Amino acid sequence: MAKITLDNLAHSYLPNPKGEEDFALKELNHEWNDGEAYALLGSSGCGKTTLLNIISGLLRPSQGRVLFNDRDVTNSPTAERNIAQVFQFPVVYDTMTVWQNLAFPLKNRKADAAYIAERVGKIAHMIGMEAELDHKARGLTADAKQKISLGRGMVREDVNALLFDEPLTVIDPHMKWELRTQLKSLHREFGHTMIYVTHDQTEALTFADKVVVMYDGRVVQIGTPEELFERPEHTFVGYFIGSPGMNIIPARIEGNKAHVEGSLIELAQTYGKIDGDVVIGVRPEYAKLSSKVGLPVRIRRVEDVGRHKIVRAEFFGRDINIIAKEGEAIDADMTRVVFDPARVNVYANDWRVTGEAA
To answer: How many Å apart are CA 106 and CA 146, to the nearest integer?
Structure first.
């Protein structure tokens, strides 16, 4: 296992980048703890795979260093980094059996035959392929091949890190849940440093100890699922995490009040002068319909999703989402929405501003 340090790291695919906008991966300075499970989360093109490939050695960064346990590996090839990487699409040896595919990394390192048999049996059970061990990989489905690829990546116990690049894309939904659970179990048992790239927030939040949220080539927040939900440090985090995402509303802040389209919203904190493009962010879970007080809204529709209802409303041409409990009444005179003051976040130029207790 390894502590991974990203020191002044950045990358551009252009030969002569002129400015920050030319960098696919903007400058990073982060330290990821030995033995923790991380998820790189963000939309397509945000830099997740670029960062993963730099860590694995498949790509050399334009600037900065990568260190494993304080040893500079920036110029070390992949083979010398002692990592296992699983890609988005399955990479298997078609002419080999499932058993031979799983055993290959251990045989390559001349491991003891009894140990190989024990590890292959354990991993085959984990990926649900015990019955196919003697089958050639050639005739298997794409999701079965990806399970082999996952298993081969996890069969070694001595790796510095396990890297996963959207590995469950071709796996059916039920098996996705099973494999994520197994990956978590494997992490708890062996304590590997794991990095898992995904654009799926459910995968990230259920897999990782900490989620690394990326936006436009930059890491905008690293935190636990609770931290990302309760205190998004960037408006993208608030929008991307949650279903529906955070409500974003332009506002003017004075002390412990937000002025929004002629209405006042109480805040739990007091703020000084804030420059830039100022908005407030409120999760739909902390918004509540009212018939007497709050911002005036027009309800467009109500979606019953079983455990709760999602109220889709409009406020001065801007969408607002409210989550109501399943048994909560929604009457025709409920044309206003109120926010829990303690759950209102304030942002300037997309970054969260911290106030003082009111």
So the answer is: 19
